[in-house]
Amino acid sequence: SMGQWEGRRWDEIHSTDEQRMVSWGQNWVAVAPPDGESAQQLFERTEEFLSECILTDDETEERGAEGDTVLVAHQGSLRAISCLLAGLSVDRFFSLSFSYLAACTAFDLRR
Q1: Does residue 53 carry a pLDDT above 90?
Q2: What is the DSSP letter of 67?
Q3: For residue 30, how many other CB atoms are within 10 A of its CB?
Q4: What are the φ/ψ torsions at residue 29 (nearest 5 degrees)?
Q5: How far, in Å, CA of 29 to CA of 12, rounded?
Q6: Euclidean distance between CA atoms 59 and 84, whole angstroms
Q7: Tens-place pLDDT, residues 3-24
Q8: Does residue 38 contact residue 29 with C-beta atoms inside 8 Å?
């Protein structure tokens, strides 16, 4: 979550919260926006979520799960998910971008 910065333009944040934006910009992996979470915290939360979604064949059978799972997420979560599934480190977060209202590639999440 971008906290108090959610939904705001970068130039607006810079003009109203310059000191915190500069601090965040110097270490966005570890520093969170006001009332938000750092990229590292997002990765940890997303990794926990993915570990709950990814089932072994035995777990799938045990739970009676079948079919596909559809995940609807915002760009930050999609970046984190994609980095984690591709084995990319958190510092590659901003190298990925998704169009608004775009469909993404399906991933095979079996262990």
Answers
A1: no
A2: S
A3: 12
A4: -70, -40
A5: 21
A6: 21
A7: 999 999 999 999 999 999 999 9
A8: yes
Task: Kindly tell me if the per-residue pLDDT of 111 is higher than 50.
Answer: no
Q: Return contacts of 82-86, CB within 8 angstroms, 24+ apart.
A: 83/43, 84/43, 84/46, 84/47, 84/50, 85/50, 85/109
Q: What is the pLDDT of residues 92-103, one digit of tens each?
A: 888 887 777 666
Are 66 and 60 a contacting pair, CB within 8 Å? yes
Amino acid identity for residue 70 in this structure? V
- Is the pTM higher than 0.85? The answer reads no
CA distance 33 to 21: 7
d(CA 27, CA 50): 25
Contacts of 52 (CB under 8 A, 6+ apart): none
